User: What shape does this take?
Amino acid sequence: MSRGNLLLASILWLVLIFFAIYPLSFLVFESFKIAGSNNFGIQNYIDFFKDTYYLKTFGNTLLLGLLVLLTATVFGLPLAYILARYRLKGKTLLTALILLPIVLPAYAGAFAFIVFFGKQGTLNLLLVELGLITKPINFIYGLHGLVFIQALHLLPFIVLSLSAGFTNIDPSLEEAAEVEGAGGFKRFLTVTLPLCTPNYLAGAVIVFLWPFTDWLTPLIFGQIDFLPSISYINIAYHFTDMYRKYMGIVSVVVSSVICIAMFLISKRWVESKKYTSLSKGTTLEGRIMAPGVFQRICAYSYMFFIAILVLLIPTVLGLSAFSRRWVLTPIPTYWTLDNFKLIFLESPALLKNSFVFSGVALIWGVAFGLPAAYLITRTKVRGKEALDFVITLMLAFPGIAVGVSYLLAFWEGIPLATLWIIMPLSLFVRRLPYFVRMAHASYLQLDVSLEEASEISGAGKLRTFMNISFPLLLKGVFVGIVMFFIMAFQEISTAIFLYRGGWETLPIGIFLNWHRGMEFGIAAAMAFFMIVIIFILLLIVSRIGGGIIGAAWGSSGGRY
Amino acid sequence: MAFIKIENLFKKFGKVAAVNHVWLEVKQGEILTLLGPSGCGKTTTLRCIAGLERPDEGDVIIDGKSMFSKGFVPPSKREIGMVFQNYAVWPHMRVFDNVAYGLKIQKLPKNVIKKKVTENLESLGLTGLEKRFPGQLSGGQQQRVALARALVGNPKVLLLDEPLSNLDAKLREKMRFEIKSLVRRMGITSVYVTHDQAEAMVISDRVSVMNAGDIVQVGTPEEIYKKPANRFVADFIGTTNFIPGEISELLKERQLAYVHTEFGQKMLCKMPESAMASTNNKVNISIRPEDIEVFTEPTQDRDNLFKGTIMHRAYLGNFLYFFVNVDSTMIRVQAPYDMTQKEGEELFLFLDPEKCVLLT
Assistant: This one.
């Protein structure tokens, strides 16, 4: 074991301990604090589970998670099958559209759907105008709307994980079933689907846990009775009410515990069920077939339907962005560039902050992620499994947990929260596992012997990394960089707890403008502007050739 | 009686014809091997019999029923058993469920399924492993499960796609005989795909040699080895020497021919088939290393006795292998293991005219 590796590992551990483990433990400690004293106890938890309101909230969140998972699965299963097995013209483009929500912020979709599906929204107004209905239909306010919007946002995770499963199944396993007499649907149920469960579960856990993370979407829909939303309200607005503050903190801890437990259970399960295949001759294509006319029509209509829903998001936001006073008409009547003028003239700081914070977070992310991936894949340094484990675990922590823990730990504890650096720091910690995973995947694809050959030729470790590994990893790493930036750029759940006057980012600007109620046009313009930036970044990714969707998925999960 | 008939089968992938208008018959109860190098179309032919691949032209007839031309019969309706190269044992089902799968689809009563599966597992030496998952079995055991699954339903036809290629050499040899006796005993018409000529020789009643989408020769293992139809078969089955030359004289009454060889000497060979039998025809003389006799000094004046120099000598235990240079033509010879001649020394080779086969 080389000294250098040990030193590197120690530095990474220090960073992890100070910026992740310390604040998160601070949060847990805080949750055991008895209000108004310096004593510790489980009183807060007893209160939480005795309070019928919080119990109900807890139940609501679980229910929402299940419903979102169910909906996303029902809608995602056919899509995944089409994606993995049908040869269709234009499939790539439709797929890219369907999977777009994975890179769009959830709140952008929520705004768009309120405008389109709301009580006075475009669809209701059109239906009334056509005389099909007399009273507006409640399409989205309520649990069903929340399920709909979150399921659409999370659909890509189900589609990608299942289609990766469908693609990676050794074709002969299905052929054997065919020869044994199992036709179409029977074969699908007894062989294909069971073999996909490990892949499915990896995606399903992300979907199920989302309602424990997303506090903003319920708020936009006027609902607060979900754990993350009530945590946000309690902590952000009732900080002085000790009871509500501690209930908020306990909610965050409970959400985190559930997320981590579910994440670990599913991870264990997936690993124990990994089916290894002996097949040597499996084609990369798997079992792609040309569908019949009927199947083709169904597949296209279904894909178009979902694609249109997705396309509504940028379209509606675009319409709102270029107009003012859009009320009670199906489409805007007064077109203007005022919204953009306001953004650029009055609050250019938002843009600057967004770019600076995300950029700084990105630099740290790379500086941390590359060495971490190197240690995990290429060395035998002691404790690397633990390092990998802790980093992966960060994936499961809700953003709100990072935000609240930073607020507590770097405000009441070490006073770092008075410096702007806290903003990129929180972004960095929140998205830290993301870049490590990308680099990790690229490293796995890089043949060790290429590096060994360089060392045998006389190059040291560092030189080998600079001359051989880095250039070869560059493509994968670059895709990771852009995706990290996209994710950091739209991050709100951590930043919302930490920003002070002058530190507002674009997402916070969107939230504030929506929150003030009157300025929806500006919020929409900002969201639209953000989507445009994301689009440009995605184009860059696709030009590098990483494949947008592969990049979004972290390239280890799916082939697309 | 032909149980499987392959009629004018044609299948192309992209622009390449994988199977090029092939005709073939498999008799009831026989084991026929499709033998050839990778990419020769043997697996595609097998998959057409199974219905896993649809031919572009032609038909497969199993037990008098057309599989393609009168409407496609899907694999699930063909009553076949198949063993895949990678076994294709379902990793999420226990051994028992893997084997019972087809019977459950036929909706047989539970006790019948149990009885059949148990008997079947017993005959393959898998008793006691019913409750295991495939991941807990060795490669050889998985292979037996695959075989059990293919046989349990008493299929009309058994198809085997390189079933032994994932096993280690020792086990492979053992399984060859085991599969053969098992299939014999059950009397199932079988088509066996392999690229291993030794495996084909051991296992089959008849061998069908394929190359580049065509069937080159069909015959018993002995026919194929002794009377290869062309240079490809002679080269692919076993080891042989090719000596290029030109027919100079035909000795009709002795059924022999004189060939003027590359190294400038006349060689007496077996009379070729009529199509080839005319003077000035360019031919290749094929003679196997074990058919060449070796002498240390010139014996009586015989035809086809040539002097050469040993270039390489290899000791292989039960025999010696010499590379002998005869006027710059290199000839491989199998010699008795107790010969003491070394590299650089001289040898006399006798190439029995009866074993010198002329090929184009």
Observations:
- Residues 372 and 436 of chain A are 7 Å apart (CA to CA).
